[in-house]
Design goal:
The chain is 39% helix and 13% strand. It is an alpha/beta fold. The longest helix is centred in the last third of the chain and has 27 residues. It contains 15 helices and 16 strands. The N and C termini lie far apart (66 Å). The strands form five sheets. The chain has a seven-stranded mixed β-sheet, sandwiched between helices. Strands 13-14-16 form a three-stranded antiparallel β-sheet, with no helix packed on it.
């Protein structure tokens, strides 16, 4: 392999400045990496040469190198000296986190009127929840749950505070669990959170500057929209086609003097159910590498692909720490567990773990231990296989029902897994009016507007919360209403 050429330096720190010299050197190197002048693989001169270039002593250089290494921006490579190894998330670490911003972000933006109405009605008796983002409670593995709790009741001798990153036993089994998706990390790369949504809040509040731009699919997950907006970030929706995010639409909106990231749900996307093709994923990664655009990959539905469909996570093809991955037990097992996880480089995980400890001092120890038992005992894999079979049957029934009653007035995609079908009516049907009339029949809908950046004529339909018979009856009633 050809050795990278040493970087050329024509700059010196200002020794009259109130900013320590080593901090000036750290910022100088960060700026060079951020603007693309020093790409990944670039080789730094020796510490002796750096000291001569900057006209400082070796101890100052050593301090700067140690700090850059702790952020994961540079690393010593055997036989190749010290190289630039990350040019996205790691560059956000030298900026000290704003705990004031984290605290203030607890005051979330108010839900719009329609969302408030849906949240109330979801718990109304005798309502058919046709768009909800939750598994049917009747699918809960009660027998397995009882067995796990009985085992835990004997083994648990205390329930003290967990380690800052989460109980080691759970992080270890998550590491092993993620290997089946091609994500190979260690326990130092995993942070346990109180649901994946908390992971998103930590990233938005502790890693991103006010006014940063978040590119995301249009439409996308409602709660992510609210989380980013509450953190003072600017959202820009990018359209999708049948293969997923049209990443090339981002380029004309990118400004390299502004901080930007991409938030994406590439597998069984919420709310559309679209799964990004593996070819598109590779193209997207190449685009983000070229444009130094860091990625948050939401993998909440990664495990719910039917028919042995293989959707390779972006994190599995990430070689430079560009992707932060969010996982969750909420969509596959039980939202009430409030167990999620973030996978990222060790310095980033340490930053987020520090913030989480100040927020809630750790996710529920009991929930962590129970989920760890599910994973390591094999119960989770067995349950997941059965669950996917039920969901596939419900999806197939939903598609047949739509074909029978809605083929002449709407279009939809066929999801390879997950919970959702994104149905879009022709211009003769107005969703707002349909929402109110469906309520009169005891049917609760999730209009597409609440997930999008503009008005649409769509519905997020879920086949995960209702039985085949309930779905068919509700859609038959809907057609009669229309």
């Amino acid at each position: 392999m050809k050795r990278a050429r040493p970087i050329q330096i024509a700059w010196k720190p200002n020794k009259q400045s109130s900013i320590p010299v080593y901090r000036q050197i750290v910022q100088y190197i960060c700026d060079k990496v951020a603007n693309g002048e020093w790409p990944i693989g670039s080789r730094l001169p020796s510490q002796r040469a750096l000291a001569e270039s900057f006209s400082v002593n070796r101890s100052t250089i050593s301090t700067a190198i140690d700090e850059l290494t702790s952020y994961g921006i540079i690393a010593g490579k055997s036989g190749a000296g010290t190289q630039i190894v990350s040019n996205t998330w790691a560059l956000m670490l030298p900026t000290k986190p704003s705990w004031k911003k984290l605290i203030s972000s607890g005051s979330l933006q108010e839900n719009n009127r329609r969302m408030q109405q849906i949240n109330r009605l979801e718990f109304a008796p005798d309502i058919v929840r046709l768009g909800t983002g939750e598994l049917d409670p009747r699918l809960f593995p009660q027998k397995m749950w009882t067995e796990a709790l009985q085992k835990m009741s004997v083994e648990i001798t205390s329930l003290g505070y967990a380690e800052p990153l989460g109980i080691r036993e759970l992080r270890q089994v998550i590491v092993e669990h993620m290997r089946q998706f091609g994500i190979n990390v260690s326990t130092k790369n995993v942070l346990i959170t109180s649901g994946a949504l908390q992971g998103l809040q930590l990233i938005a509040s502790c890693m991103l500057e006010d006014g940063s731009t978040v590119f995301t699919e249009a439409p996308t997950y409602l709660k992510s929209l609210q989380m980013f907006q509450s953190a003072g970030l600017n959202l820009k929706g990018i359209p999708m086609d049948h293969d997923g995010l049209e990443y090339w639409q981002i380029e004309k909106q990118l400004h390299f003097d502004e901080s930007s990231i991409l938030y994406t749900i590439p597998t069984n996307q919420n709310p559309t159910g679209i799964t990004m093709s593996n070819i598109r994923r590779k193209e997207l990664m190449n685009f983000c590498i070229k444009n130094r655009l860091p990625i948050i990959e939401d993998g909440a539905y990664q495990e719910l692909c039917f028919d042995d469909e293989i959707a390779v996570p972006l994190k599995a093809i990430d070689e430079n720490g560009m992707v932060m991955y969010l996982g969750s037990a909420s969509k596959t097992l039980a939202p009430g567990l409030r167990i999620g996880w973030v996978i990222a480089s060790e310095p980033v995980i340490q930053r987020l773990g520090d913030a989480k400890m100040q927020m809630d001092y750790g996710a529920s120890s009991l929930s962590q231990l129970v989920f760890a038992e599910f994973l390591k005992s094999g119960k989770y894999g067995q349950y997941l296989a059965d669950l996917k079979q039920v969901l596939k049957e419900r999806r197939d029934n939903a598609l047949a029902t739509l074909g029978k009653y809605f083929e002449d007035i709407a279009v939809w995609d066929i999801p390879i897994g997950g919970f959702y079908i994104w149905l879009t009516f022709n211009e003769d049907v107005e969703v707002d009016g349909l929402f109110e009339k469906a309520l009169d029949k005891g049917i609760l809908l999730n209009p597409g507007d609440i997930y999008d950046f503009k008005h649409n004529r769509s519905l997020r339909l879920s086949f995960a919360y209702v039985t085949c018979e309930e779905f068919t009856a509700a859609m038959k009633n809907m057609r009669m209403i229309i």
